[in-house]
Amino acid sequence: MTAMTATRVTDGVWRRLRRRPLALIGMALVATIVLAALLAPWIAPYDPFEQHFDGLTLYGEPLPPGGAFLLGTDLLGRDLFSRLLYGARTSLIIGVVANGAALLIGTVIGLTAGFFQGWIGTVLMRFTDLMMAFPALLLAICLAAVLQPSLWIVAFVIAMVNWVQTARVIYTETTALAARDFIAAQRTLGAGTGRILFRHILPHLVPMIIVWGTLGISTTVLLEATLSYLGVGVQPPMPSWGNIIFENQTYFQSAPWLVFWPGLAIVVLALAFNLVGDALRDVLDPALRGSD
Amino acid sequence: MTDPAQPTGAAAAPVLSVQGLCVSVRTDAGLVPLVSDISFDLARGETLAIAGESGSGKSITSLAIMGLLPPPAVRVTGGEIRLGDTVLTTLPESRMRGLRGDRIAMIFQEPMTSLNPVMTVGAQLVEAIRAHAPLSRRAAQAEALAALTAVRLSEPARRMGQYPHELSGGMRQRVMIAMALALKPDVLIADEPTTALDVTVQREVLDLLRDLQRTHGTAILLITHDMGVVAEMADRVIVMRRGMVQEMGQVRQIFAAPKAAYTRDLLAAVPRMGQGGDAVPRSTAPVVAQLTDVQVRYDLRGGVLNRVTHRVHAVEGVSFDIRAGETFSLVGESGCGKSTIARAMVGLTPHQGTIRIADQAVGTMTAQSRKSLSAVAQIVFQDPMAALDPRMTVGDQIAEPLLIHGQGNRATRRARAADLMDRVGLTAAQLDNYPHEFSGGQRQRICIARALALTPKLIVADESVSALDVSVQARVLDLLRALKDEFAIAMLFISHDMAVVENISDRVGVMHLGQIVEIGSRAQIFGNPQHPYTRRLMAAVPVADPAAVRPVIPRMAGNSPNPVHKVGAVVPRHRLVAVADGHLVAQAG
User: Among A135, B147, B192, B545, fewest CB within 10 Å belongs to which?
Assistant: First the structure.
């Protein structure tokens, strides 16, 4: 039954997605970034860690874009393009894994609290409020300082900090849904809690989860950048788009490309996921079926 | 065409004149007409009713006159609207704003959404008055007080300082009328002004509108779906359907000799009182549902310690039984506890006392008992769109109870769903559609099909036809009646509509403030109502006959106005005394 319905709801999703130009652009951008990250060892023109002797001017300044180095070099004479390609791996892992984990935690907590209410709801939501009131950055720094910084620890820390907003929003939405007549109808049909939660409430939260998920990608990538800047994120020399910006931000006036290109990469990544998310949300809504 | 009932003839120049009005909505498929070529004149002191079912374009017409069509998709695409000498259709918004409220005013169906919840009633009235008249605050306040007095609001001076939520629905609608009439407009557009109100309150509001019209000579454009209201209020009627005028004429003529086939159908579909048929002997079938001394109370917390200080006695000592194949109706006004009983009977609301359905006690709501209750008792809610999951196909939703109860396999469940769809007048081909692809009446059929899937012994219909158009309502009622006979189902029918209740019930209970005040067979209740509250309810029902003499509503006396009591307070129970076999009436004291 579940499988049967699942095929039906998702039936033609790909076909309907294909008809939306913005969705296609978004998917193309996501695919490009993923491919660039996967194929980095083969397409990167240089070793991202190598400090080239000819990568700096005689005065020790980074080289502008063009010439031997496509996007120029950074303050240590490393090839910016190669670092961006390798950095895409870090940023994608953070954006997808950390953000995904945050969404999962937020959804589970929000859904549980919103549906069951009572003391369990109170405990969960007061805890959420506590987390919200606590400065996220401070918490992240504490966690990262206690645990040895590595890529996965950074992802974990970001997930621990970022689930709060999702939980709040999902909680509000779930309380509203749980009070609606079709949930009461389910109860009178004898449906158990699991069925009501997973078949009748969760599907309604999917659009919201998608929107929060796509919005969250840019915030997580930026949070990773901040942590890296503070020295508790991804450790140098490993590149991430965030730490490329922060490493080079002091040269912003004399070498703006060092901030521009990684910044552009983050914007494009966030935009691409937003486009796909928006389209997916519309395509999954039966009320909008056939309207495109 | 001159009618003695209409003193102001067409001789005077019309206040409002609509000629060949067309309104269209812009969609991807081009302009779709919502209203095509409607023309009418409205004279001073006249009431013109635009009647029609949902989607007929009656509200769009009124919004077009007010210049309030939702931009940019919906707009006037042809024709002319004139207010006196002013052509409204070409008037810029800045000047239109000056006319609104001043020369044309409007009251809406739901007064709570039209009033600002964070401003006192007085402040809103003063603001409205000063927006159009150069008055001092003090003078405007005097004006506002006079307006509230004119709409017969009790304690008008105190109401000035109250917020909308402190007033009842009827009082709020009076405030809206006061606001609309404070500036003595030429035209008042009343869009379903009493649809959200209880029937006794509706009567008072309609009387008020009529009196005010008589004093001020205001022309009223009344938008309604209720032919009873049309018959009571209108001088002339326009019947609309799908954006087109079906018929137009004097009210008596339309009701006595409708020309258009649609008007005839519409009038035939209106449930009328006194059509209940003859008395039938009490069924001797086995009892399916039995309620004994049922109470439902809600705690109200207050004070510094947030303790329970008061309780709402939503249902207080209610007892009745329903036999197989019998329809028992509960009638009463909003807040009387009838829906609470409905929800308690299907286990959605905890209660005290005993409810037994098919030899099974409703109460201990464990997952297991809930499941076994669901096999014998099902509910059909008021709003079918809300009762269906919008993200699931109707086929899956009808088959879902079978899945929950582990009956059959996928193929047999689908076959059963197809069968049920067929049984409620839909087709198996529609199984894979989603709820939004159906009309309101069809959705209610889907809900009925879902409720029937487990072949229950009791169906609770909680205002199940109240949200439907009359023609659709009649067909859904027929369906319910046929299904009940076919499967020998006991039915609890909850409604505020006396005419519908008289049409469908075998037995009737009248509820007031959580208690049953009168109970008996349909013939006993409607033929020989004993309790003053029952009589009052019946007298207030609008009769779809302009020639009918409207009885004066008797006022209730000696009843506490709400069911909220202090913790520990002893609530006086009505003592039901038999006046005839099976006909019980509450005795005062």
Answer: A135
